[in-house]
Amino acid sequence: MRKKFALSLAILCMVGFTGCASKAKEQTSSGPYDLYEGYLTIDGDQLLINDFEFIDGADQYWINKLKLTSEDMLNGYYIHDVSDELLSFTLTEETRYNFYDTMAQFVSEDNKDRLYTTTNIDVFLEKFGIDETGALRKTPFEVQAFEDGRVISISEIFVN
Fold this sequence. Notes:
Layout: H1 2-20, E1 33-43, E2 46-56, H2 60-65, E3 77-81, E4 87-90, E5 96-100, E6 115-118, H3 121-128, E7 141-146, E8 151-156
Parallel strand pairs: 5-8
Antiparallel strand pairs: 1-2, 1-7, 2-3, 2-4, 5-6, 7-8
């Protein structure tokens, strides 16, 4: 009798908990991705990256190889342009744009970190602006992209 009661109670609890669970939002994109750092150009839904590498005082190999001096690294880093080739990716409606809203255009004044995230490319372009070629101002970004070329996110690299 105790076994039947325990089994009935377990089934009742499982059914009850399952009924109370909210339906999870289906994730439409997942999989392996790569990270890139660089300057961006946007042309419609196409993202072009002029990739680079940050070199700081700990990167002695690159400092010696490129013969960098402290004058080259006034802010504690040097941006090394890796190649003249542009990498091409595709922006989607799911692409997240992460940036620091230092002027509080999109976040409240009392937001201390001023980090803002949106999936609206127009808001992103309003913040950074583009020139006649589609290039964003010389702001460095980190880009996460799936292996098939779809962009997951673009994040401002805040440098001073």
